[in-house]
Amino acid sequence: MARSRRYQKGHLTKQGDWWKLRWYEGVFDPVTCKAKRKQATPYTIGRCRGPGSLTKREAEKAQREKMEQVNAQSGPQAGDSMGLIGEFVEKRFNPAYVTACAKSGQLHYKNLLKKHILPAFRDMPPDELKADTVQKWINTKSKKFGRNYVTQMRNCLGTVYNFMARCGYEGRNPAQGVKIPREARKPKKTRPYKLTELATLLLHLSKRPPNCPLWTMHVLGATTSMHGAEHAGLRIENVNLSGEDVWMEDQDVPHGSLYVLGAYSKNEYTEGKNDYRHRVLPIPDALHEKVRACFYHPETGELRDPSEPLFVMPGTWLRHKKALPIDTQNVTTRVFKKIEAKVGFEVNWHRLRATYATITKTLGMDDQDRQDAMGHATLAMTESYTDQTERMRLVGNKIAEQIIGSEAVQ
């Protein structure tokens, strides 16, 4: 384990005829764990010249004695309790570590801590949590969740204990050495929509109120690879249907295109996981008028402010009297679940991205273009969305159509 920052040797220097000693006044802040300012007035050990002067060895001995007193009074001591794990997370880890992360990192840690780690270990002192207890906890979690997600739980707990070490905790990190079982449930693969499923889904969405944008959003998602949160974060000013090229955020956006700059999820805008998510996507010609209709207020017919979200649910206008981004989780619960009960297949936002990845692969689109369109950092991630079985089925259908057609001609 790395040496704790509270153990100081001090800095011995000569100033004129005197030995001077400096050290950090408080060593570290209890929340941020960062060193405080240097002591304004150096401590005088003794003379280095003249009568009664001290040799360097004598000054260093006096330095060690003084720093033992300083280390005994500054910061938490070796036996000090860090409190309960829940108290440490809420008072130190969240304010100092989590808030310093990017938005995606904050959501990552808050989710793992709230749903898994704190419910299991909130009321335990840090030194009472042992590696075998964590191993049993991981074994239990791996029966319900995928291997990658369980690994994130273990690593998050390890990060909490690493931060404790910076705050003076000297016990063992119980997450070290914990192994993820091989029999952990494999992550569920996102399956693309079959063309018949997508047609059935669009038929149900077309029966919703005239101002409901879900039909447009689904066609746009299947033809551009946008997921639900990116639809919710799309603003009117990010869409170019002006008839000429427009410059947006240092990016040239051609007519009939949109510029994805981020997403909207859990009541806040985010910039996406990486810069690859910032991309220009063409809008199919058949959707131009549908998208343009979203520029106008559904009741008054007036052109809306460009900074407002492009897609707004009709009920939002009635309840709030203003444009609010679509709550994709709410739509999943209140709309998609009801449609699932009728159509008999799973309905979610992410299947649109898998549909785009699979169909574009089948049509022979360049791999680099597919990766750029989906906003992935690696081609391997794009391929993980591509369903091999569905691709083979689509190709088989084309071959069958040609054979049946040739026989019919004969």
Structure in words:
By secondary structure, the protein is mostly helical. It has helices at residues 56-73, 85-97, 103-121, 131-141, 147-166, 195-206, 214-224, 228-233, 288-293, 314-320, 328-343, 350-362, 367-374, 379-384, 388-409; strands at residues 11-15, 18-22, 43-47, 239-240, 246-248, 251-253, 257-260, 263-265, 268-270, 279-282. The strands form 4 sheets. The protein has a 3-stranded antiparallel β-sheet, covered by helices on one side. A hairpin with a 2-residue loop joins strand 5 (246-248) and strand 6. Helix 3 (103-121) packs across helix 5 (147-166), helix 7 (214-224) packs across helix 12 (350-362) and helix 12 crosses helix 15 (388-409). The longest helix has 22 residues, at 388-409. The termini are far apart.
Overall pLDDT, averaged?
A: 83
**What is the strand tally?**
10
Number of helices: 15
Question: How would you describe the oligomerization state of the chains in this entry?
Answer: single chain
Gross morphology is elongated
Q: How far apart are the first and last residues' alpha carbons, in Å? A: 80 Å
Strand content: 5-15%
Largest sheet: 3 strands, antiparallel
Rg estimate, integer Å: 31 Å
Look at the helices and sheets and give the structural class: mainly alpha
